[in-house]
Design goal:
Layout: H1 13-22, E1 27-31, E2 37-41, H2 42-58, E3 66-70, H3 75-85, E4 90-93, H4 100-110, E5 114-117, H5 122-128, E6 137-140, E7 156-157, H6 158-163, E8 179-184, E9 194-198, H7 199-210, E10 222-225, H8 237-244, E11 247-250, H9 257-266, E12 271-274, H10 276-289, E13 298-302, H11 308-318, E14 321-327, E15 334-337, H12 349-356, E16 367-371, E17 386-391, E18 414-422, E19 428-433, E20 438-440, E21 443-445, H13 447-455, E22 460-470, E23 474-483, H14 491-499, E24 510-513, H15 527-533, H16 540-545
Parallel strand pairs: 1-11, 3-4, 3-5, 4-8, 5-6, 6-7, 10-11, 10-12, 12-13, 13-14, 23-24
Antiparallel strand pairs: 1-2, 8-9, 14-15, 16-17, 17-18, 18-19, 20-21, 22-23
Helix pairs in contact: 1-2, 1-8, 2-3, 7-8, 9-10
Bound molecules: adenosine-5'-diphosphate.
Length: about 550
């Protein structure tokens, strides 16, 4: 028997409709790329998004066509997302921090028909344009007065472009499983892969993201996503914020400490989210200038592990609750958030900080399991670590054009590529990337844990741990270290420092000193390069074993 409730497809434009009806006058404040602060509201965002939809339709953009955006967080970018999806087309966010060759590859693979971009990226695109044959026109997020002379094909200022229509237009209607957005994974190995979100997945994910034990957003919050819309679907903030009607503050192109502080303070921001590097810059700025954060209540930190010292500073020195979050592009992207369940509500001091090192628990809509290499499910004891696999309505089931083949196991779980423990209360802790974890005599050693330990040594600036071949144990840890400027240290000195802090068999077999550790475009340590560099390194323990 079927239920007798209404068929109300979960379409993204319903979110901006709701925001315009229920929270129409709520402000959306942006730092414009041209410079000044710009203020609008949800009702106006919706009106102009309808013009974007109407204007795209007039340019012949249809259901399923991809429209690229290479842009910072501003009101225009937000309008564009709603306008594009409102006719069944697909926003495709391009990350300006990728190398030009990767950007070219991604845009061609996605076969984007239109490129919407900021003034910042016009010179870059002029250099790439010859290699982007699918792009029919470039729309620059600015007005006629600020529009530069450019060689870009059919280039037009956004304000002039939408002024050509009257906005008397209705959203298209279609199935909720229609594609809505696209974001490529960074592709540390091989080509980037396209993740294709649907209207349904984005709407359900926005509900999950806004829940009280997730971001806990409310209409009386002032929400500032510092995380860019081009990073992993903008952590859902373009959807979950209008859904609840919070005031929205968009930081534009400036993400340095002083600029971010100015917005947090001036607009009394209560909620914000970004990767650890952004917060490092903000904390340094506040410490150097003896500043406080009287309005900020919660900060979501994710994308890579949030350092313990950062959590401690935000909470102790500034009275801001840190929510450590984990996720990935393939998960829309939120997977888990570290908020306190009643089981842990009483934790204080070091014990609370210990728990906040975990990436927390998943909201409804994300199922998790950890398994060994053979797919056998492992216990949730907070100690056993295994491959982290996830399932849910906002998790990818396949990459764009089928790249990467079959990505789900027999039960429909997606392998995240992370290695993690899960404790009896469901708190997940990422211990490594699966391709980096060291397998020594059948047991796994976490490279992240050894690296964190090594950087705790006062002379160490940066550390990386990789597995080096070993005849008896298959692999043993090799610690690679960059010392702080002017410092000297010996192998024994570093190993002695670590000796009583890890299980004996986790202690690295050797230490190599280097002047630099290679990084990827998104700032993560490039272990593939390190493994190549040290492939003929002979551990001192090898001879003893032979
Ligand atoms: P990018 O490499 O562009 O950041 P993703 O956002 O998809 O692409 O990266 C997802 C990966 O980032 C996760 O699989 C995980 O390895 C890592 N990650 C994300 N959040 C955390 C976190 N809080 N702690 C540790 N690792 C994290």
């Amino acid at each position: 028997m079927q239920g007798l409730m209404q068929d109300w497809p979960l379409l993204i434009h319903r979110i901006i409709d709701h925001a315009a009806i229920q929270h129409g006058g709520r402000k959306v404040i942006s730092r414009s790329i041209e410079g000044p602060i710009h203020t609008t509201d949800y009702a106006s965002i919706r009106r102009r998004a309808l013009k974007v939809a109407q204007r795209l339709a007039r340019d012949g953009i249809r259901d399923g066509d991809r429209v690229a955006t290479l842009a910072w967080n501003t009101w225009r970018h937000l309008e564009a997302w709603y306008g594009i999806t409102g006719i069944g087309a697909v926003y495709h966010t391009v990350n300006p921090r990728l190398f030009p060759d990767q950007q070219i590859w991604i845009i061609n693979h996605a076969e984007d028909r239109v490129m919407m971009t900021d003034l910042t990226f016009v010179p870059l695109l002029e250099k790439l344009a010859d290699k982007l044959p699918t792009i029919e026109r470039y729309i620059v997020f600015t007005d006629g007065a600020h529009m530069p002379k450019t060689t870009l094909k059919n280039a037009v200022a956004y304000e002039d472009w939408i002024a050509e229509v009257d906005g008397d237009f209705a959203w298209a209607s279609f199935d909720e499983n229609t594609a809505a957005g696209m974001c490529y994974t960074s592709g540390t190995t091989g080509h980037p892969k396209g993740v294709l979100y649907s209207h349904r997945s984005n709407v359900l994910h926005a509900f999950m993201a806004a829940l009280p034990d997730s971001k806990g957003l409310r209409s009386n919050d002032v929400c500032m996503p510092v995380v860019p819309l081009f990073h992993a679907n903008g952590w859902s903030l373009a959807f979950s914020t209008p859904m609840v009607g919070s005031t929205f503050v968009l930081p534009g192109a400036k993400m340095d400490g002083p600029s971010i502080y100015e917005l947090l303070d001036t607009y009394k921001v209560t909620f914000t989210a970004a990767v650890p590097t952004v917060w490092l810059m903000l904390l340094q700025h506040m410490e150097a200038n003896n500043l406080k954060l009287p309005y900020l209540k919660r900060v979501v930190i994710g994308g890579s592990a949030c350092p313990r010292a950062m959590t401690e500073k935000f909470e102790k020195n500034y009275g801001v609750e840190v929510i450590h979050a984990w996720g990935m592009t393939e998960m829309s992207p939120l997977g888990s958030l570290c908020t306190m369940k009643p089981d842990y509500a009483g934790l204080t001091g070091t014990a609370r900080l210990d728990l906040q090192q975990t990436q927390g628990h998943p909201p409804f809509g994300v199922e998790m399991k950890i398994t060994d290499d053979n797919g056998r499910v492992l216990p949730w004891d907070g100690k056993t670590f295994g491959r982290l696999k996830v399932r849910g309505p906002a998790v990818a089931r396949e990459y764009f054009k089928g790249d990467g083949g079959d990505i789900l196991d027999d039960d429909g779980f997606f392998d995240t590529g992370d290695v993690a423990t899960i404790d009896p209360h469901g708190y997940m802790h990422v211990t490594d990337r699966a391709k980096d974890v060291i397998k020594s005599g059948g047991e796994w050693i976490s490279t992240i844990e050894l690296e964190n330990l090594a950087v705790g040594h006062p002379k160490v600036a940066e550390a990386a741990v990789i597995g080096a071949p070993h005849p008896k144990w298959d692999e043993r840890p090799l610690l690679i270290v960059v010392l702080k400027e002017g410092e000297r240290a010996t192998r024994e000195e570093l190993l002695d420092f670590m000796r009583d802090k890890v299980a004996k068999w986790w202690l690295p077999d050797d230490v190599a000193f280097v002047t630099e550790i290679p990084h990827t475009a998104t700032g993560k340590i490039q272990k593939t390069t390190l493994r190549e560099q040290f492939k003929s390194h002979v551990l001192p323990t090898v001879e003893a074993a032979e």
